[in-house]
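Handout, section B. The chain below has 180 residues.
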Amino acid sequence: SSIMLVLNAVLIALGVVLSSFLQIPIYSDIRIDLSYVVIVVMCFMYNPIQAGLSAMSIAMLESSLFTQYGFSISWATANFVVGMGISLAFMLTKQMRREWLRHVINVGTIVVSVAIGMLFIKTIIECNLYDIPFGIKIAKNSVAFGVDTGVCLLGYLAILPRLLKMKLNGLQSELEVEEE
């Protein structure tokens, strides 16, 4: 629908703004990228393909418009993997009855998705494109992995009240069915 399209555009724009203008430098060109909070919210709202493409769009726009290096295929690809992985976990665990297990799976998937995207895919692409030694790049991307994972987990905390509300609504529906 057009409302979802506009909402997606607004969330992508918010992600680009957070990634471009509200960054906290840590080391060299590693920074706290708050766009991952938006990405986790999009993963909650969209199917895996939509979430992956939206996360990829944030990286493509931000790197093309606001970085000194220009478009980053490695970051865009990594974001696609992160968005798809997290959204897939949210989709598959949405109806789980064991709340604690759902959260364990979701948090674990956030860590694994960011590891696959940022540690492995981004590192391999950058090593091949820029002829950077693997040992140097993996060390730098390990720090970025920790930072990005932390921001994604903050995004998960941001949607946690909504997840709990969905669970309470589901329990209320079950109670109403049992009363009839």
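Note. Strands lie at 24-27, 30-32. Compare this with the example in section A.
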